[in-house]
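Here comes my example:
=====
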Amino acid sequence: MLIGLSVSRVRAPRTNPDDAWDTTTAEIGHTARVELVDQELVAKLARLDDELCRLERVVVAFSGGADSSFLVAAAHKRLGREQVHAVTAISPSLAGDEEADCRALAEEWDLRWTPVATDEMERAAYRINDTDRCFHCKAELMEVISPLARAEAATVVLGVNVDDLGEHRPGQRAAADAGAEFPLVSAGFTKEDVRAASQHLGLRTWDKPAAACLASRIPYGTEVSVGLLNRVDRAEASLHRLGLAQVRVRHYADTARLEVDLDDIPVVVARRAEVVEAIKAVGYRYVTLDLEGFRSGNLNG
């Protein structure tokens, strides 16, 4: 457990899964932590251990975000490398920077990792982009990765946390219907808990900006196409290169509405010419800045 420990060095990797949470440093991370974790979080980590032990073998839907990264790290540490298979869905709805980071994390953490192609764009129900779009996307994901899980006698698990349950997430229903489980929910983890535990374990994803599929930038009722997804991806990548970590480019025909953290609004204004040039370079005619700032799931139904 993480109770009452003070660690000044990084220990060598352990092979005994019973040692899963007995140090403030995880071998899968890279930063030694010395602060203590509060008792409530310790209890949740213990419940997560129990959930993972119950499942024994898992296939983790690994997007590279804070939630799925913490889940795959915890599973890797608790169950061991051979019992954990990280799978990343590759499609036009995944930002190129996110795909690259999944590859990097898999190498850094020595994950058993497989990228798989998903074809949600072939589903008309997905392309029409109504409020159930995410259901069809997740249904496609489950169709692709469920055979991998069956071949390994494993359970598909997703990095859904308790806070996600209060949002419009039809994809959760599709995953659950197909037999996926949500260990972070069962253990009671909130978004804040995931980041706190990740930081404690030295995972560099602890403060990674929230991410979502590129289709979430397109308002419901506007048909999703590969061209639109690619445009949004290039627009956001150009803003990342300008130093804006948390950003959304919301697509409205020939207008891009930019959402950034409130603290970054002065940065965007100060670098207005560069921002406008970058966004227009990918095909938008007008560039607007949302003064309410970044809001995750802003276009959800």
